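Sample 3 of the quickstart, ligand shikimate-3-phosphate:
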Amino acid sequence: MKNIVLIGMMGCGKTTCANLLHEKLGRPVVDTDALIVEREGRSISDIFAAEGEPYFRDLETAVAKELSEPRELIIATGGGLPLREENTAALRQGGVVFWLKRDPAATFASESMDGRPLAQDGQDAFVKRFEQRTPIYAAAADHIIEDFSSPENTVNAILNCLN
Ligand code: S3P
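Result:
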């Protein structure tokens, strides 16, 4: 059975929804950021500061390619993973991709952006980044999820698409 792949901006709820889906479906969760942190033995912020974004993106591409098989996983991705088309292509081979399209201003206002190096320039820059990425997320997604009234409702929307 195919993987469930969650994409979307930083703080949109990918990790929370992945964990809720795990509770409901019992499938294992893989978090691409967590995998990178574990392998590198340092935080995302430290990787960006010491090596720069392209180095991080190469790690992300390696992880995406490792996750191309359908293994009934729930995959929470880093917000920038779809920026490389090859990453999306790999994940789509074995998975159904859900874009959690949460309003960026609401996301920025309510979620902590600590440890997120690309979200340190304020709300306007965050919203602009969302707008720049919108066509990329849209092209990557099989389904777009827009119910963020509660994590439970978001997950139910994902499950409805699957059924
Ligand atoms: C990024 C999102 C982060 C992390 C890195 C870059 C991005 O993941 O991969 O800081 O470019 O949107 P989250 O979406 O889990 O915050």
